[in-house]
């Protein structure tokens, strides 16, 4: 349902007539301890670790400007359904509908934030900076009963019992003004080293909690500002788990240039608000660029020395992201602020993976408490079951090894960290880590079932061209603090990459694409010996797969020519009653070219299938 600029609500009455690879049991007991997380022993240890990462990134990356990017030792991926989106009405203070739509989620019992929510009695909508509540019954007489302004740009929310928790993005200046924050570096230090204040690039996600027992008059209960960008969130029972990331708050150089003696000569930056663009400039390119350098250049060694001096003046509280909290109660507004996660709940990876700080903040809507866990390293893709949360990061060390003159040692893989989210008090508690070759597309490429974790990945032998790619399915099992590969299928659809994946109980579905759309069916009934058992080739590709009972898969994606030229929007129904011989049962092409679009292609919450009515609703636009 997550489609803000709705051009058209497209409703389709479901037309219902309704590989190669190597697999085998391979309980890999190789030592993956290097990819585990270690709990920080103290704040000084955490501080020293972050400072060392900042310095090493700048030292080995000659092209890197601290504070302006993710670094060069890792490349990140981002987070993007199972149970039907029709739900039986729940009891409330008033009558509720016998059937009503809910957010399309991946796992039953694990809610996902959306900009529209429905509890069968009321409809909740975020629109143009406001939180609206409409009385939905009777449908012919539905009326808007309250509107509450939300600070910033509200994007998603949860509604649970008599609480609404709303996420919005706000400018850091709001925090500075409201909580009397000042820049950490004064003008004299800026002139000395030409470093910009630490706070310049801080992202902020605001969490607003409203008490809505009286739907006609919501009351503000809490405002929490988190120095983090939103990655994902999940709600299980009374607890909302927010996953966000920010970069360590390091100073960064500006308004001048740094000279390098290796592969680059000069990186010009004409200050913020100027017209020049910073970047790596070779001797040839430098002679061709009509730009002038402002300020006096300093050598690379001088820059690193200045950076080290600046970092020496900082402690862990300067480096780590903070929260700013206001709780409203009978005693008025109570403010507090601190780092988002304490040192004793922060984890350091055995293998350095960047200076980002990924935070898992758990809000208990029943008690009003929140707890947090942090990982120092690259942010990534999130999957959650009712008991576990998995955090996957993509690592590709080509640039680090290239800078060190050792390209042949480059490795492409994803680390996966497992956290227990069933504990009390509610907090993500680290359990185990593992490693698989390749990159994970999105949350639907991961699944937990019957004590095993399944994941689909794509590997590229040539990172720059994508040539030599291959696709894999891995089944992992936790052994103490390790997620070991118990079984795998590798080398699926060489030269292609995964466009969609779905795991449903002991079955898996993977769609790859380069010129045609092969759908592979994978038998996972024996997790130690998964097998590709079926393959179907059709033009185009699917980007999202949705179960229609046990025997059919409903898909949305794109049509394509036999040569692989992408065309219009495509809806398909696959018959998988014979798992070894999947068939295309129906398809419909909407639009002849790429001008036909739907957010449901890449956002599963915009895909709403009503099983009881054989009805699909998706947003649609054409240009």
Tell me what the structure shows.
- This protein is mainly beta and 623 residues long.
- The strands form 11 sheets. Strands 2, 26, 27, 28, 29, 30, 31, 32 and 33 form a 9-stranded mixed β-sheet that branches. Strands 3-23-25-24-16-15 form a 6-stranded mixed β-sheet, covered by helices on one side.
- Helix 1 runs antiparallel to helix 5.
- The longest helix is centred in the N-terminal third of the chain and has 18 residues.
- The N terminus is likely disordered.
List key phrases describing it.
623 residues; 6-stranded mixed β-sheet; disordered N terminus
Give the secondary structure arrangement, pairings included.
Layout: E1 9-13, E2 22-25, E3 37-39, H1 43-60, E4 86-88, E5 99-101, E6 116-118, E7 122-127, E8 130-135, E9 143-149, E10 153-160, E11 163-170, H2 172-178, H3 187-193, E12 195-196, E13 204-211, E14 219-226, E15 229-236, E16 239-247, E17 252-253, E18 256-259, E19 266-269, H4 283-288, E20 298-299, H5 300-312, H6 316-319, E21 322-329, E22 332-339, E23 346-349, E24 356-364, E25 370-376, E26 381-384, E27 388-396, H7 398-403, E28 412-420, E29 429-437, E30 446-449, E31 452-459, E32 470-479, E33 482-492, E34 497-504, E35 507-513, E36 516-523, E37 531-539, E38 541-548, E39 552-560, E40 566-575, E41 583-590, E42 596-597, E43 608-610, E44 615-619, E45 621-622
The gist of it:
The chain is mainly beta and 623 residues long. The protein contains 7 helices and 45 strands.
């Amino acid at each position: 349902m997550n489609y803000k600029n709705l051009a058209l609500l497209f409703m389709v009455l479901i037309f219902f007539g309704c590989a190669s690879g190597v697999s085998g049991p391979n309980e890999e007991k190789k030592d993956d301890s290097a990819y585990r997380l270690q709990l920080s022993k103290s704040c000084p240890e955490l501080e020293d670790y972050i400072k060392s990462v900042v310095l090493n990134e700048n030292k080995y990356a000659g092209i890197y400007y601290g504070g302006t990017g993710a670094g060069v030792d890792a490349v990140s991926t981002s987070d993007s359904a199972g149970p039907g989106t029709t739900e039986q009405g729940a009891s409330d203070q008033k009558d509720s509908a016998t059937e009503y739509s809910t957010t399309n989620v991946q796992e039953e019992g694990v809610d996902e934030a959306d900009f529209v929510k429905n509890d069968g009695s009321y409809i909740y909508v975020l629109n143009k900076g406001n939180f609206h509540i409409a009385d939905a019954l009777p449908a012919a007489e539905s009326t808007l009963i309250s509107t509450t302004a939300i600070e910033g740009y509200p994007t998603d929310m949860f509604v649970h019992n008599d609480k609404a928790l709303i996420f919005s993005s706000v400018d850091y200046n709001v925090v500075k003004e409201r909580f009397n924050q000042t820049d950490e570096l004064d003008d004299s230090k800026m002139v000395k080293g030409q470093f910009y204040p630490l706070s310049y690039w801080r992202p902020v996600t605001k969490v607003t909690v409203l008490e809505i027992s009286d739907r006609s008059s919501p009351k503000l209960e809490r405002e929490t500002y988190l120095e983090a960008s939103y990655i994902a969130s999940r709600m299980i029972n009374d607890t909302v788990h927010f996953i966000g990331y920010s970069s360590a708050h390091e100073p960064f150089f500006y308004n001048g240039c740094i000279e390098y003696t290796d592969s680059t000569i000069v990186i010009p930056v004409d200050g913020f608000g100027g017209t020049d663009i910073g970047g790596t400039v070779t001797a040839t390119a430098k002679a061709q660029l009509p730009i002038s350098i402002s300020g006096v250049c300093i050598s690379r060694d001088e820059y690193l020395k200045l950076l080290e001096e600046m970092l020496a003046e900082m402690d862990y509280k300067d480096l780590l992201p903070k929260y700013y909290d206001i709780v409203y109660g009978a005693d008025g507004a109570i403010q507090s602020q601190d780092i988002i996660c304490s040192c004793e709940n922060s984890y350091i990876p055995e293998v350095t993976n960047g200076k980002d700080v990924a935070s898992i903040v758990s809000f208990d809507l029943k008690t009003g408490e929140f707890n947090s866990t942090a990982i120092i390293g690259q942010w990534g893709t999130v999957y959650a079951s009712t008991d576990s949360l998995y955090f996957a990061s993509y690592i590709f060390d080509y640039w680090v090894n290239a800078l060190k003159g050792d390209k042949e040692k480059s490795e492409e893989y994803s680390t996966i960290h497992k956290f227990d989210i069933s504990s009390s008090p509610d907090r993500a508690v680290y359990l185990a880590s593992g490693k698989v070759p390749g990159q994970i597309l999105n949350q639907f490429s991961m699944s937990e079932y019957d004590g095993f974790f399944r994941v689909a990945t794509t590997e590229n032998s040539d990172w720059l061209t994508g040539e030599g790619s291959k696709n894999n399915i891995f089944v992992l099992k936790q052994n103490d603090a390790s997620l070991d590969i118990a079984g795998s299928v590798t080398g699926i659809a060489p030269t292609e990459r995964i466009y969609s994946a779905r795991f449903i109980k002991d079955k898996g579905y993977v769609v790859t694409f380069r010129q045609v759309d092969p759908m592979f069916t994978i038998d996972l009934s024996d997790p130690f010996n998964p097998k590709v058992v079926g393959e179907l080739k059709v033009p185009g590709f699917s980007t999202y797969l949705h179960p229609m009972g046990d025997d059919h898969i409903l898909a949305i994606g794109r049509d394509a020519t036999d040569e692989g030229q992408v065309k219009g929007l495509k809806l398909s129904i696959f018959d998988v009653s014979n798992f070894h011989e999947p068939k295309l049962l129906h398809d419909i092409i909407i639009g002849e070219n790429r001008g036909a679009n739907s957010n449901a292609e890449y956002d599963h919450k915009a895909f709403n299938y009503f099983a009881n009515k054989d009805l699909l609703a998706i947003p649609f636009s054409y240009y």
